[in-house]
Design brief:
It contains 14 helices and 11 strands. With about 350 residues, it is an alpha/beta fold. The protein has 2 domains: about 230 residues, TIM Barrel (Alpha-Beta Barrel), CATH 3.20.20; about 90 residues, no CATH class. Helix 4 packs parallel to helix 13. The model has no long low-confidence stretch (mean pLDDT about 95).
């Protein structure tokens, strides 16, 4: 099967992309993947401009190859003191059981990239080969500036309408995120109806309706899955959960243990951890969230402030069950090994299909 022209633009030969998992992917992981002939990635959505600069600089020092820098373009949180106070009280018993106190108030811990001039200036200064967006699009002026700097732009889409918006905005490729995918659902509007299209249905649809390269994301864990995505029209496949167990990952011991347990067979889509729908390994937090209506959950990322505090309180007591253990439905197929070795295995599997 001929390689897609997108790969030549990037400067790689393997149609394998590592997902830019904020908080889990690292410069070491991204560099190892890129050095192995695939496309590595870092997620800087949770970072300050200074922190993002350090991550980009470290990655550039470890590889001369292209890598992807991912940012979130969510709408700023809508403050609601009553909802936020009720949320703190709802989770207070969990803190009490851990011998801890919840925060007195919740903060908007992540800033959107949309309209973020300082982060835009950093990207224009460091010029990573690829910048990608989750939860929507930045402002038109940001897109124009990044494109003028020669940076390729990718955007996540969970539907045909979102993909068309990315194409209309002038992006270079679409990351088609199926409902199987781990981590945050990339929907532009988390409160809009979601058709929950699976990865293969979505890439099949987009590759025929949108005149942009499509990158398959969600549930793909091996060379057979990558091959299937390519045959349905994808230019490449993006894998995230497959890399969580790599030693270069920032996943903590509890996360790794859960991924290797029966929890991997029972991933759950929940918004109780962060405020936006996200797929997580079944754990104490997802169990707690089962009876909580979405209307009771504060806005993203305000909710995440309390979620992170609860996880920190749990970890201090050796309890990892309140972590944001993001993982896709392919989690049971996880194979712990160094990132470069995983790329080699995936390439061999793909070649054998």
């Amino acid at each position: 099967m001929a390689l897609h022209p997108l790969l030549a633009r990037i400067g790689i030969e393997l149609p394998i992309f590592q997902a830019p998992m904020a908080g889990t992917s690292t410069p070491a992981m991204a560099a190892a993947v890129s050095n192995a002939g695939a496309l590595g990635a870092i997620g800087v959505a949770a970072e300050t401009v200074e922190g993002a600069g350090k991550m980009i600089g470290t990655t550039q020092a470890l590889t001369n190859h292209a890598f992807n820098v991912n940012l979130f373009c969510h709408r700023p949180a809508t403050a609601n003191a009553a909802v936020e106070s009720a949320w703190i009280e709802r989770l207070r018993p969990q803190f009490t059981a851990l011998g801890a106190e919840p925060p007195k108030a919740l903060r908007e811990i992540y800033q959107t990239f949309r309209g973020n001039d300082a982060m835009t200036a950093l990207l224009l200064e460091t010029r990573p080969a690829i910048v990608s967006f989750h939860f929507g699009l930045p402002e038109e002026s940001q897109i124009r500036a990044l494109k003028q700097a020669g940076i390729l732009l990718f955007g996540s889409a969970t539907s045909l309408s979102e993909a068309q918006a990315l194409a209309d905005a002038g992006l270079d490729a679409i990351v088609a995120q199926g409902y199987e995918a781990g981590g945050h659902r990339g929907a532009f509007d988390e409160n809009a109806p979601d058709d929950r299209l699976g990865t293969f249905t979505l890439i099949h649809l987009l590759s025929r309706r949108i005149a942009l390269p499509v990158i398959a994301a969600g549930g793909i864990m091996d060379g057979v899955g990558i091959s299937a995505a390519l045959r349905l029209g994808a230019a490449a496949a993006q894998l995230g959960t497959a890399f969580i167990a790599c030693p270069e990952s920032a996943a903590d011991p509890g996360y790794r243990t859960a991924l290797a347990s029966d929890a991997a067979n029972h991933t759950v889509m929940t918004r109780a951890i962060s405020g936006r729908p996200a797929r997580c390994l079944a754990n104490r937090f997802t169990s707690l969230a089962e009876t909580i209506p979405d209307s009771d959950v504060p806005s993203y990322p305000v909710t995440y402030d309390l979620g992170k505090a609860l996880h920190a309180a749990g970890k201090a007591k050796g309890e990892f069950g309140f972590g944001a253990q993001w993982a896709g439905q392919g989690a049971p197929l996880s194979r712990p090994m160094p990132a470069a070795e995983l790329i080699k295995v995936l390439a061999e599997e793909l070649a054998a299909v």
